[in-house]
């Protein structure tokens, strides 16, 4: 305040310290703890987004009265179901339920993959984002052998016969 009781305007270009206990604690304990704190916040935010996603899915299912409009083609789903030779007949409701289940599966996997892309500060969903979502989520363990985990290294050209750049990868040597 100045002498007449008016508030003093802030000086432009000079930053005043802002008390933020979490940032101060993280800064005093080292960069690892700060990173860990940020990672923990991201994980909590992703969990909240997934909870909102599933709440919306349940609400949408409860409000659905028209089962004739589908995002996925029912004929394709029936064809996949009939690929199992033990399946003889398929009730009319079964492909509809499968279509909705497939849609929800794709949505959740995409949601988790998008979270990985955002963690890496990208706006394009890539194959490695899907692979990361699969490896991070126990429910998707059945896909671990299907989706390759190399982080885009297959796009890097190597001379013929050169060893892989990733020490954990392997290659076949003819004998």
Explained architecture:
By secondary structure, the chain is an all-alpha fold. The protein has a domain at 91-150: Histone, subunit A. 50% of the residues lie in helices and 0% in strands. It is built from five helices and no strands. Helix 1 crosses helix 2 (31-63) and helix 4 packs across helix 5. It is elongated and about 65 Å long. The protein starts with 20 loop residues before the first helix and ends in a 39-residue tail after the last helix. The model is unreliable at 9-20 and 152-175 (pLDDT under 50).
Produce a short descriptive summary:
The protein is 50% helix and 0% strand. The chain has helices at 21-29, 31-63, 74-82, 93-119, 127-136. The termini are far apart.
What CATH architecture of the domain at 91-150 would you give? Orthogonal Bundle
**What oligomeric state best describes the polypeptide chains here?**
single chain
Radius of gyration from CA coordinates: 26 Å
Distance between the termini: 85 Å
Q: Which fold name is given in CATH as the topology of the domain at 91-150? A: Histone, subunit A
CATH superfamily of the domain at 91-150: Histone, subunit A
Main β sheet profile: none
- Name the CATH class of the domain at 91-150: Mainly Alpha
Q: Structural class of the secondary structure composition? A: mainly alpha
- The portion of residues forming beta strands comes to under 5%
Residue runs with pLDDT of under 50 for 5 or more positions: 9-20, 152-175
Mean pLDDT: 74
| Count of runs of 4 or more consecutive helical residues | 5
Please count the beta strands (DSSP E, at least 2 residues each). 0
Helix content: 40-55%
Identify the overall geometry.
elongated
Strand and helix order: HHHHH
């Amino acid at each position: 305040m100045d002498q007449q009781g008016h508030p003093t305007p802030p000086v432009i270009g000079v930053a005043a310290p802002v008390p933020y206990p979490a940032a101060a604690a993280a800064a005093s304990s080292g960069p690892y703890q700060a990173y860990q704190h940020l990672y923990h916040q991201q994980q909590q935010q992703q969990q909240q987004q997934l909870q909102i996603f599933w709440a919306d899915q349940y609400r949408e299912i409860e409000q659905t009265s028209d089962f004739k409009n589908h995002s996925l083609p029912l004929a394709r789903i029936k064809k996949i179901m009939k690929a199992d030779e033990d399946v003889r007949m398929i009730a009319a409701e079964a492909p509809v339920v499968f279509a909705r289940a497939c849609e929800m599966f794709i949505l959740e996997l995409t949601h988790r993959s998008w979270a990985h892309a955002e963690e890496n500060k990208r706006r394009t969903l890539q194959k490695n984002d899907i692979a990361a979502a699969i490896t991070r989520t126990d429910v998707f363990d059945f896909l671990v052998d299907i989706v390759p985990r190399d982080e885009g290294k297959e796009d890097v050209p190597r001379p013929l016969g050169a060893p892989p750049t990733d020490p954990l990868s392997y290659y076949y040597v003819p004998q």
